[in-house]
Amino acid sequence: MKRIIGLLLLAAGTLSCAGTDGTSSEAFPPIWPDYTDVTIPVNIAPMNFGPADGLPVKGLRVEVRTPDGKTVLRSRGRVAQFPLRRWHKILRRQAGSSLTFHVAMKVEGQWTNYKPFDMHVSPDPIDYGLTYRMIPPGYQSFGHMGIFERNLSNFHQRELIDTRMLNSGCVNCHTQNRTDPATFSLHIRGRHGATVLQHDGQSEYLNTVTDSTGGVFVYSYWHPSGEYIAYSTNATRQSFYTDSHRLLEGYDEKSDVIVYHVPSHAILRPPQSNRKDRFETWPSFSADGKSLYYCASPACRLPRDVKSLKYSICRLEFDPATGTFSEQVDTLLNAHALDQSFSLPRPSYDGKYLLITVANFGTLQTGHKEADLWLYNLETGAFYPAGGINSKNTESFHNWNSSSKWAVTCSRRDDGLYTRLYLAHMNDNGVFDKGFLLPQKNPGKYYFELIYSYNTPDFTSGKVQFNRHAVRRKIMAPERDSVHVRTNS
To answer: What is the separation, in whole angstroms, between the first and last Cα of the chain?
Structure first.
């Protein structure tokens, strides 16, 4: 008899959402972040969430169930938070399946049970973590900023370096070689400026200003061999709009694409990507290392003609054995024929796709609400929107993970002001599933109180091998490694 009563009580507890009485709604729960119907990696941190901003919620109850109806997690309080070890154990069991979230909210003394929603658990793991820059809003000066590392399986964030350590105006563009935690490039700007390279257990601190290149190295991308790294040299400026649709426009008054040969400290400067009548920027190497992609636009008078500034996607064949380039420039996407501007071509590491930012014009498109991510199929030439990774607001800086199954983008979809990191899974149909916000232990509190934006994210397959104190000593010292331009490139 006691067993029968117990079973009846258990059944009653599973009939209403989270075991509460009250009204029912056919709508999904108004939660933030919006994690409804997302695909998550099997090793991601707990997907904690709370009520959407502005809702006077006095109670939040959540039950998480497997497809057979078994309750495996519960949460009570004002924020749904799940224990780390239990969460990971459940994800491993449900890999390739899904979890259903039953949510009830208490508002003005009344409980409402909402329509359950699913999270799909992909068996494709995501990498160890992300590196990224965090920068405060502002236009006149750099302010405090830093480069950080985040472990994606938990909520641990580690500061690698920041401007206060270096008496520097800017740290930026931390770029790893195919997510290798031991190989990276990092730029320091200001009084103690240098380009830091770490590779093969060694560190270099480069003075990259030469008479021929006319500026410091900026946007970077490693060759898969680790012997080369492509850079652009940019003279970046900004102008402000007087209407309310845009705040400012960033652009390059001049820019070129070069390649640095690490063993010889030599700059390779192909004339095809160093033309005075064109702006060239955003370089990247193909997955096999035999092509160099970059963006190019006819030079124009700026800022006057900024709305006619449209960048095409170009390709140069590259021979890594000799460090030489083809004379022929292939145009993969013609900006003026398509009446769009393309930036940040990022090849997937499996060699199948380019992930590209598309906007109406310009090159620095973080302020363009229309900026979306598109995929260019390198095998077929098909070009199409990237799917659920996009939103109704800006998508900009992006990168692939090591397996080419996940991507990260900087998005302004939440409030139109701050860029935050969204992750998305590449599905078997060749598009991304719905993106989800980088999880936090208490996401509402964390993001509401955060006064920094994220940018330049990159995946890392392990804890970055970075000695911040050794880097600081070298940066503060006057010595720099010199570079030279190879004349026969």
So the answer is: 87
Strand partners, 109: none
Question: What residues does 459 pair with on adjacent strands?
Answer: 130
Both 112 and 166 in one domain: the answer is no
Residue 307: strand, helix, or coil: helix
- Give the Cα separation of 25 and 280 in Å (integer): 54
pLDDT of residue 61: 97
Nearest to 458 by CA among 402, 412, 403: 402
Which position has the higher pLDDT, 143 or 105?
105
Q: Is the pTM of this model over 0.70?
A: yes
What distance in Å separates the CA atoms of residue 454 and residue 238, rounded to the nearest whole number?
Answer: 19
Mean pLDDT of 229-242: 82
- What's the sign of the alpha-carbon dihedral 107, 108, 111, 115? negative
- Residue corresponding to tokens 């190019």: 296
Domain boundary among 122, 143, 168: 122
Mean pLDDT, the chain, whole residue set: 90
The answer on pLDDT for 212 being more than 70 is no
Measured distance CA(261)–CA(244) in Å, rounded:
45
